[in-house]
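Please go through the protein record below and explain what the tokens say about the fold. Record follows.
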Amino acid sequence: MIRKIATVGHPVLRQVAREVSREELASPATQSFIDDLIETMRDASGAGLAANQVYEPIQICAIEVGDNPRYPYKPKIPLTVLVNPRIEPLTEETFDNFEGCLSVPDLRGVVPRFVEVRVRAWDRHGNDVDQVVSGLSAGTFQHETDHLFGKLFLDRVKDPATLCTWTNFERHHRAAFVDRVQALVARFGS
């Protein structure tokens, strides 16, 4: 089932989502919710979607980048469901990521993101996830995890002058951004 996506200003986006127990995760209701989350993300052509973006303040998010028309420059990320995720930066080095968000329609801005992070979580079946994510993909994982702690990319924009509509990003900023991130992708392979 495709769910409605909350937009900026709705209080659910500012809530710190609660952790999910293994028992709750295994329940048919939660597994059905995860299916809905994935279906909604794919329908909206998102690179990821967090539970509170669809009005469920629980610590679950989905990430997937395939042939996404909104982000043709992003490296592929296989479908990944994270439950109770924690992100640990593995470096002080950051890159400037031009981010958008399904909950902040038609707005983009530059956000500094760590180039390498360790992600610890459970998958949708309660199995431990412990992986290192680098490059542009690391930004996607940080963005989605931020949602679960009540943060939007707008909170991390250092220079409000970088904020722009999607059309103006495409027209004035995309080429330079893609050049920068292609170097990042070449360096990290992700």
Summary: The CA atoms of residues 45 and 69 lie 7 Å apart. DSSP finds five helices and seven strands in the chain. The mean pLDDT is 96.
